[in-house]
Every structure is written in C-alpha cells, then in structure tokens.
Amino acid sequence: MIHLIVGNTGAGKTTYSNALKLTTKGIIFSIDTWNNTLFIPDKKPHDGIDWFLERIDRSEVLIMNLVKQLEESKIDTILDLGFSKFIHRQKFIDFATSNSFKISMHYLDVSKKTRLNRILQRNKDKGETFEFEVTKENFDFMEDWFEKPNNTELKKCIVINE
Question: Most exposed among 15, 18, 50, 56, judged by the fewest C-beta atoms under 10 Å?
Fold first, then answer.
C-alpha cells in the first residue's frame, strides 16, 4: 500500500506519517529530509523554486524505484512528499495504478493559523520533525502554491481535520 500524505506547510504531515508508520510498519519517505540532506547545503541565494523542483523530480525517480521494491516485499510506503499540486498527486496515483499498487491519500486539513503557529514553534524548538527553518516568507509562498485536493480527490481520501 502506498500512502500519499497531503497537506500544506505546518499541517503535521511528518508527525502524521510517523504515527501511520506505527500502525502500518511502513517506510517513510520525507522530502524535507531528502532536501535537507542532499540539496540545501548546496543551495545558493539565487536558487529558487525551480531549482528545488528539479532536484525533487530526480529524487522521486529513486523513490519510485524503492517503492516498487518495497511493494514487491509487501511493505507499505508512506510518502511525505508535500503533494502541493494536483499534478504531483496525480503523478503518484498514475504510478500506483500502472503498477497495480494499492494507494491511499490522507489529507491533513488544518487552518492557516494553526499551521503558522506550528511552524513558528518548530523553528524555535528544533524538535524531532525539524529539518530546516521555514521562514514566514516561505510559509506565505506555500499558501499560494498549495492546491487543496479537489472534490473528486476528497471523495477517495482520508481527511484529517485539526
């Protein structure tokens, strides 16, 4: 089973993924961890969203290969990849469908106020789910960037409200 974890910045995707791991015994792929480990150390001040998206696309080639291997071993995968855009979610739904893998989408529907408070607290505490500081500017950018799942997606998805 592939679990797509969807939610805007600060929704609690990584925390939710960790809880889901306990019940599914799945393997988590968190794009924040990949970015922090592989890319952020090389990021230049002028590198923007396109720079990140290119690297995320390349990472997802490897992630999909690993998901195939895990599915063959009957191990769930928990994809904490943001899934901010419909087309990104659809890419993984198509991948699952073409490989006859079961898929479940989990949408964390959390208010902007709650999410911002979580981000500010996480930046301060630098606790278990902290990978890098999310600035208010980054948070505001993601508010406009994120595409909430549409009605068709929501019918097929587990919705978690705050």
Answer: 50
Q: Which residue has the higher pLDDT, 135 or 62?
A: 62
Q: Would you mind telling me the total number of residues written for the chain in this entry?
A: 162
Torsional sign, CA 18, 34, 37, 118:
negative
Number of domains in the chain: 1
Of 131, 103, 108, 101, the C-alpha closest to 119 is 131
pLDDT by residue (tens digit) across 23-65?
Answer: 999 999 998 778 777 777 788 988 887 887 888 889 999 999 9
Which domain CATH number covers 97? 3.40.50.300
The amino acid present at 146, given as its one-letter code, is F
Q: How far apart are CA 89 and CA 157, in angstroms?
A: 12
Question: Which residue(s) pair with 95 in the sheet?
Answer: none
